[in-house]
Amino acid sequence: MSLVIIGTIAYDAIETPFGKTDKIVGGAATFAGLAATYLYRPVKLIGVVGGDFGDENLNILKSRGIDMEGVQVKEGQKSFFWSGRYHNDMNSRDTLVTELNVLADFDPVIPATYQDCEYLLLGNLTPQVQLTTLARLQHKPKLVVLDTMNFWMDTALDDLQKVLRQVDVLAINDAEARQLAGEYTLVKAAEKILTMGPRYLIIKKGEHGALLFGDGQVFSAPALPLADVFDPTGAGDSFAGGFIGYLANVGTITFHNMKNAVIFGSALASFCVEKFGTERLQELDQTQIRQRIAQFTALSQFEIGY
Amino acid sequence: MSLVIIGTIAYDAIETPFGKTDKIVGGAATFAGLAATYLYRPVKLIGVVGGDFGDENLNILKSRGIDMEGVQVKEGQKSFFWSGRYHNDMNSRDTLVTELNVLADFDPVIPATYQDCEYLLLGNLTPQVQLTTLARLQHKPKLVVLDTMNFWMDTALDDLQKVLRQVDVLAINDAEARQLAGEYTLVKAAEKILTMGPRYLIIKKGEHGALLFGDGQVFSAPALPLADVFDPTGAGDSFAGGFIGYLANVGTITFHNMKNAVIFGSALASFCVEKFGTERLQELDQTQIRQRIAQFTALSQFEIGY
Predict the structure, then answer these.
(1) What is the interface pTM, i.e. ipTM, of the complex?
(2) d(CA A64, CA A72)
(3) Which residues in chain B have their CB less than 8 angstroms from residue A259's CB?
(4) How many A/B residue pairs have CB atoms within 8 Å?
(5) CATH code, domain with A140
(6) Into how many domains does chain A fold?
């Protein structure tokens, strides 16, 4: 039994009001994978990089015990590259460069040792590749979580809808939920999206936390108020990794556990933004995570005898 | 001992995507006063209306048991009038008309029977009038809550800063907190504002809930996800009324009670927006409020054994 994550493994170059990086390691599977390892093992990755990626970069993932058998290395080719600049509010950004490179014709290979997959995270990626991954798994996983974005709603909606019909949980942000449903209020958007396939919907609202809909219930998770957000890149992916990692850890899918998974996802995301790239997610320990969970508890729990 | 509320008592004309009203009863003191009555009595109002206000409108307040001795009726003059149009997102609005009328030279009179004031809400109004009110109270109240807005930061910042030095709690929205502090992140803005006078700061974030800062702690309250917001007018005032009403009810100022007060404020605000104007706040009962509090609890409470 394992947790399998498919998504991009990339080079990012990031500019924020706090500074600027050269090419550093990024990608949806990278952030989600690192985050998940703090809650569950084994974590097995599916992805593709170019020969330019370098062993020291692959080691960032390997040293957290991540199984890389499903990560193809295409010698003589270049890794997916994304470059972006965050605005002063850190909530919006401009994409400066997107070079698909090895991602352009990515054909996911699923090693035999990954067929024990019980928890599957379809990280942000072409819906077609997500569909192929689902088709190549011999057994339906116990839980499939999908993280996607507006780009695929604009360019590959039919495929995305096919993916949606096969997943248990969808995680998107508020603007994307409005776009996908064609409804302005999030309650109505959620109602509509929950008829498209997923049993649970998570709406990520950045600094305003997240909403979880499903089983006729709603849960509102806070975001940790931070004095400085250093680099928001990968926060959504870290959320998804923490979320599915927690559920793989407890092993039972209930609304109660889903709520806690959203808190763990939020906690991992709150670490991610404290430093550039994957830096913070490489150096966490269980004590820090326990303390962060306690902060979320203090932040949002109250007791009314009424 | 009593809860005294000063603020506007007004005519509003409102346009929303759901419809349009003629002149209906509005004003900060109106909404806050009605909301507070569900948690504490007596509630005593200070304000001014014109002869055009009409007994049936004053009765909306009187029938909830509100003491109106401090409300001056200026015969032959017109009441404060505000008209606004909400955009489709219901989070932004255009002011169409503002006629100060009787508010232009409002000189607050504090009846002798109001000098037992223990809880004072300075509703949104000219800082100069708020200062006069504070000066005319013979005893410092146990708790002073200030609700204000960006308009006074733009036009009367010196006076507003004098008010700030005399209040215990400030309630403003996120954009106003950023403006007042000159800081973008809310954590830094809160730190700065808490050096300006108030011991506690509430940052209202509309559909994203509210943050409470003070005593070195932070609390994040959710907003109830609503399928339809019918008319947001008065939501902030209802929040302030419910907030101070709860604290007057429990009688002890602790962070624990402040947190609960934010939840009660949020609950009263969530009722307010369900109908036009004061309609919903006139017809509540304790069972509905208890159920709403239970909804807030279910919405945001979790249990992690970690």
Answers:
(1) 0.92
(2) 18
(3) 302
(4) 103
(5) 3.40.1190.20
(6) 1
